[in-house]
Amino acid sequence: MMNADPQELAKFSELAHRWWDPESEFRPLHRINPLRLDWIDRAVSLAGKRVVDVGCGGGILAESMAQRGARVLGIDLADKPLKVAQLHALESGVAGLEYRAVAAEALAAEQPAAFDVVTCMEMLEHVPDPASVVKACAAMVKPGGWVFFSTINRNTKAFLFAILGAEHVLKLLPKGTHEYAKFIRPSELARWCREGGLVLNETRGMEYNPLTQRYWLSSDTSVNYLVACRKSAA
């Protein structure tokens, strides 16, 4: 069985043509991308690294990492976003960037311990078995390499902010973008990381002020949060 929800794939495929419009439904991704990109680059220094971006969608993060000098493979199971990513890469003329329609688990079996860096951002809360994706990410990274995740906590505040607030009140995202039951507590993600042989290095929260429309990283992981891990070099 493929670890993907057909409804999720269809949902993002329908919006694929708007992926690179910074004022579209993907505006939040465009706004947070500099934050997550700089956070990753500070930890690992992307230049010259071989990177796989799991659940790359239309390629916003993948392309920006390639612009920092990484050799990036973006993977996803939604065909339309991948085609948008490929077209945008051609138009941008970014070197060291390619895309494939392949599952994380399949790539992990094909290329174990092959990447210096693995990123999986805003994706785990959209798949039936997120633990399986975490395991695959851990399998793909080289010993001593880095794995970065971002997702949404599961609690009352996250429901109010990420679903009621972002989707229904502020309309930052289309209604139905997220399902509360698929949100992931930091303790759950940490356990899956440990089970995959990853050592947690840092956890950061991401906050948003609707009045100033500003995003920033903080120590508050109660809603959106990011996790940096390393695979043991032993």
TrEMBL record:
It catalyses: a 3-demethylubiquinol + S-adenosyl-L-methionine = a ubiquinol + S-adenosyl-L-homocysteine + H(+); a 3-(all-trans-polyprenyl)benzene-1,2-diol + S-adenosyl-L-methionine = a 2-methoxy-6-(all-trans-polyprenyl)phenol + S-adenosyl-L-homocysteine + H(+). GO terms for molecular function: 2-polyprenyl-6-hydroxyphenol methylase activity; 3-demethylubiquinol 3-O-methyltransferase activity; polyprenyldihydroxybenzoate methyltransferase activity. It comes from Aquincola agrisoli. CDD domains: AdoMet_MTases. S-adenosyl-L-methionine binds at residues 36, 55, 76, 121. InterPro entries: SAM-dependent_MTases_sf, UbiG_MeTrfase. Pfam families: Methyltransf_23. O-methyltransferase that catalyzes the 2 O-methylation steps in the ubiquinone biosynthetic pathway. It comes from the Bacteria. GO terms for biological process: methylation. Belongs to the methyltransferase superfamily. UbiG/COQ3 family. Pathway: Cofactor biosynthesis; ubiquinone biosynthesis. This is Ubiquinone biosynthesis O-methyltransferase. The keyword NADP does not apply. Its EC number is 2.1.1.222, 2.1.1.64.
